[in-house]
Amino acid sequence: MTALLEVQALETAYGSSQVLFGVHLAIAQGEAATLLGRNGMGKTTTVRSLLGLVRPRGGSVRFLGERIDGLPPDRIARRGLAIVPEGRQIFPNLSVRENLLAFAARRNASEEPWTLERVYHLFPRLAERQRNMGNQLSGGEQQMLAIGRALMTNPHLLILDEATEGLAPLVREEIWQCLATLRAQGQTLLVIDKYVQRLIRLADRHTIIERGRVAWQGTSAALDADHGLWQRYVGV
What we know:
The strands form two sheets. A six-stranded mixed sheet has the order 6-7-8-3-9-10, with helices on both faces. A four-stranded antiparallel sheet has the order 2-1-4-5, covered by helices on one side. The chain is globular, with a radius of gyration of 17 Å. By secondary structure, the protein is α/β, with parallel strands linked by helices. It is 35% helix and 27% strand. The two termini are 32 Å apart.
């Protein structure tokens, strides 16, 4: 299967401090993949490197068959790579509707593009709160809005960085159900989260990052069969 995203020998540093050491990763169209590891091990730096927010020092990143490492973030985003960032980062002084419309684009050729109506169907609570400002929403509603905003770009690849962090259990479950729906609809996903059991049920393949290096890669079945990996690298 041809990779939608292919990362080879990625090296990234902040000044003189190197963070990533030869990271490799491949995600096929329609696949759900994860990045796992403890905090500070290089997961977010990997994502920032993919998005062009930090320029890699070595290696390559190919997206849709073309090199994107070294491109500015806006050009990478326009190619169809979207992020639901840690901390949500919605516009507090725009309404729910305005937050969604501000990101509307057609970056893939889907026959069923994401529209306001489709996002509201996925998250009925956003439909109810569509006239409320971003700063008037609960944390869970803000997270729903952040996901909906990214979907409105109609991305080829959707990256979710700690999308369930800090949410109440019921709201967290809504987010997991949303991700399962997206997965079933064929949306390509890269998910960073700490809930390994849920990720095993959601994703096809997993990559564990340890001190900026790939410590392990494999399938959900392989990860489920070796709970020692969880203790060693994820700390659950």
